[in-house]
Amino acid sequence: MNEINLKDKTFEVFIPETEISAMVHSVANAINNSGIKNPLFIAVMNGAFLFAADVMKKITIHNAEISFIKLSSYEGTETTGEVSRLIGIEDNISGRNIVVLEDIVDTGITLERIIKLLEKENVADIKIATLLFKPNAYTKDIYIDFIGKSIPNDFVVGYGLDYDEIGRNLPHIYKLKN
Ligand code: IMP
């Protein structure tokens, strides 16, 4: 099934499941080899739920923990430029070595907001891992430590990513067909 329809739009397969697995593997390996100690992974919901689960299964670092935050900056296929924190960090994370797990970094607005929130908590270190990165849309200077794949400015769905909250369950990543 190379094409699917979600609501009013047609999408075509862009990154098949097998390639996603390889990307996840390579991100997890890079994190494992980075020397980070006692990491607290912070997965950004909802989009990163599958990526976070799959990466975590491959993390071999001693005492790795995971927690979840929820923010949203998207409605439909266009960014609103607004990001709101919906669910935050409840435990004391001061002094922790954080690895943020993102599904996709587009403009970087969400990422910047997350970094600011984490810095207020006096964490020791922040590293960023994202499954997908859109370098041509990125407007920030924040260094991204681990990238699964850089992609053009296409709108993508599947493997956690949504179009108006649907499509997150798809095993492949699809892109909007023009
Ligand atoms: P940013 O703040 O512009 O970097 O956007 C980050 C968030 O927007 C991601 O965590 C996604 O939830 C959403 N997003 C950005 N690009 C896409 C896309 O192509 N498909 C689905 N969601 C996206």
Unreliable stretches covering 5 or more consecutive residues: none
| Distance linking N and C termini | 18 Å
Biggest β-sheet: strands ordered side by side in the sheet: 5-4-3-6-7-8
CA radius of gyration is 16 Å
What would you call the quaternary organization?
single chain
Q: What is the number of helical segments per DSSP (H or I, 4+ residues)?
A: 3
In terms of DSSP E residues, the strand content is: 35-45%
Walkthrough of the structure:
The protein is of the alpha/beta class and 178 residues long. Helix content is 21%, strand content 38%. A six-stranded mixed sheet has the order 5-4-3-6-7-8, with helices on both faces. A four-stranded antiparallel sheet has the order 1-2-10-9. The longest helix has 16 residues, at 17-32. The protein starts with a strand and ends with a strand. It binds inosinic acid.
List keywords for this structure.
single chain; 4-stranded antiparallel sheet; 21% helix; 38% strand; 178 residues; alpha/beta; binds inosinic acid
